[in-house]
Design goal:
- By secondary structure, this protein is α/β, with parallel strands linked by helices.
- 46% of the residues lie in helices and 18% in strands.
- The chain is built from four helices and six strands.
- The longest helix has 34 residues.
- The chain is elongated.
Length: 148
Amino acid sequence: MKKYFKFKKLVNEMFEILLDVFKILYFSVKNIILYRKLADTDLTIVTGSDYTHFESVLNLLDSIKIYEPNTNTVLYDIGFQSSQLKFLNENYKNITIKKFNFDKYPKFFLKGQMVIISLAHMHGKAPLFQKQLTSMGDLFYGSMLVTK
């Protein structure tokens, strides 16, 4: 009986691998036919934070500098301290820092701290990258929120 379950698990894993390979091939061919290129390389990384997660922002920016040095990066300031902004401007010349305009959004956006109003922790930060999505191509949003 154990052999049967091992065999069944192996068959399922092989099926999943074959399905993944098929998806890669399908979307590769589709992109080549429709867009004349394998993948869109115009990626923008968007994140936002306040002073409480500054160290995490630095970790993210250092990783981007190492692994994605030519990628557009937008960092929304939702409450950095002036010394932190100075450090970012002096040490991370390749990123765009934008001040989040709290006046344009409902009152549940508190200056210096965003009230997260969804289980996925995304609704409160959606305005940070909504404008980016409409003006640019592919987008990666990275959050500094870490939960246990």
